[in-house]
Amino acid sequence: MNEPDFRIHAPGMDTGRIIEDIRNTVARKMEEGVYADARVARAERTNLATLRNEDEFLEFYLRCLRDAVFVDINDFEIRERRRGLGPLLVLLKKTIWNLLKFYTYRMWSQQNQVNGLLVTAIEGMDRKYSAKIRAMENRIRELEAGPDRNRDGGNEG
Fold first, then answer.
1. Sorting pLDDT into bands at 50, 70 and 90, what band is 22?
2. Most buried residue among 43, 44, 75, 92 by CB atoms closer than 10 A?
3. Exposed, middle or buried: residue 139 (CB in 10 Å: 0-12, 13-18, 19+)?
4. What are the pLDDT digits (tens) for 110-142?
């Protein structure tokens, strides 16, 4: 039952070391926040397991959604790994970025507004329906308690 996720068949390859390196790298990057949206993916993967406790799952999922809702519109460093033409390619990419930045920011800003409104709407609906469900559950408990407990302490004359 403890089968590896994948196998590498090549002479001289230490499969166990490669898999361990991958796992360590992923764990390190998650701690550094490189995979900030990984929690949403984890929520999706564990969806069936957490359906037993829907309140906790929904709370966790909404928290993940809130964390991942906005597109990062900050500038980013443009790098090139290739040598030789690298500096020229970086200059070309920076020029293209500077020409398109205005349009890109407008689009990202609008997308952030839509994303924010959608998350707010979902959270509002969750609060509204959670309150309605609690009120209905309380009413059901009162009705199940019987007619004597629903009247002024059961002391009618």
1. confident
2. 43
3. exposed
4. 888 998 999 999 999 999 999 999 999 999 999
> Which of residues 68, 84, 114 is at a domain's end?
68
Helices first, then strands: H and E counts in the chain: 6, 0
Does residue 142 sit in the same domain as residue 81?
yes
Range of the domain at 57: 14-68
Element (H or E) spanning 113, and its range?
helix 86-144
Q: Are 79 and 90 in contact (CB under 8 A)?
A: yes
Q: Is 154 within the bounds of a domain?
A: no
Does residue 22 or residue 127 have the better pLDDT? 127
Q: Which two tokens stand for residue 151?
A: 């009247």
Nearest residue to 77 via CA among 64, 99, 54, 94: 94
Q: What's the maximum distance between 2 C-alpha atoms anywhere in the chain?
A: 100
Q: What average pLDDT does the chain have?
A: 78
d(CA 29, CA 39): 13
